Amino acid sequence: MSVISLSLPNKLINDLEEIMEEEGYNNRSELIRDTIRNHVKQHKIEKREEKEIGGIISVMYGINDQKVSEQIQETQHQNENKVKGVLHLHYDEKNCFDIFLVKGKAKHLNKIVHQLKRITGTKHIGTDLIPIE
């Protein structure tokens, strides 16, 4: 196994140590390896451009930001053949949280993610995509 060194801000170290404790990791290296493995796995899935994949795309934005809400809905409607369903939640008093259930070729779903990321005012865009065999 190769050894690498990296510098992290104290805040990130504190966050890592909190996750270690909550999730039962024995050390930082174990947590970082697991995180990198998950990122590499997700990256490989997203790069299968012509293959069918499915999963969720999550978006968080301000509850009073009508322009962002409209742009997200527009993206949803432009991709209605890939977006199988949407769950809209008033997450808390400040935020809305939309969860898109999606299915299609990786290149098309990645395009949806990129469209959402270009919307100024979103606070979070996340994905959990899996291959459909």
From TrEMBL:
Requisite cofactors: Ni(2+)
One Pfam family linked to the record: RHH_1
Domain Ribbon-helix-helix protein CopG: 3-42
Gene Ontology BP terms: regulation of DNA-templated transcription; response to nickel cation
Positions of the Transcription factor NikR nickel binding C-terminal domain: 55-126
Keywords carried by this UniProt record: DNA-binding, Metal-binding, Nickel, Transcription, Transcription regulation
Molecular function GO terms recorded: DNA binding; nickel cation binding
Record family assignment: Belongs to the transcriptional regulatory CopG/NikR family.
PANTHER family: NICKEL-RESPONSIVE REGULATOR, NICKEL-RESPONSIVE REGULATOR-RELATED
HAMAP family membership: NikR
Protein name, entry field: Transcriptional regulator NikR, CopG family
Organism: uncultured organism
